[in-house]
Prior knowledge:
Elements: H1 2-31, H2 40-63, H3 73-100
Amino acid sequence: MTNFIAFIVYGLFSVVIWALILSAILSWLVAFNIINTRNRGVYMIMDILDRITTPILAPFRAVIPPMGGLDISFIVAFLVIQGMRNFLLPPAFETLRQLIG
C-alpha cells in the first residue's frame, strides 16, 4: 500500500516539475515572439500551465522580487520541490512503511 502511495506522490511531483519547466520555456518563447498567444492552442496550453504553476510560484514571488526583469522564483521553486522529492519524501515513506507494517 505504501509503495502505491509513494508512486502517486512521486508522480504528482514529476507533473509539477514538468509543468514548471514547460511554463518557463513557453514564457520565453512568447517573450521572444517565437510563438504568440493569439493562437488558440498555444493560449489554452499557457492557460493550463498558468493554472498549475501560479499557486506554486505565488509564495516564492511574494518573497523574491524580480531582478532586473528576471523572475528567479521558478529556479527557487524548482530547487525546493526537487529537494523535497529527493530528501524529505524517502524518510517520510519509510516512516509510513514502519507505521503501517
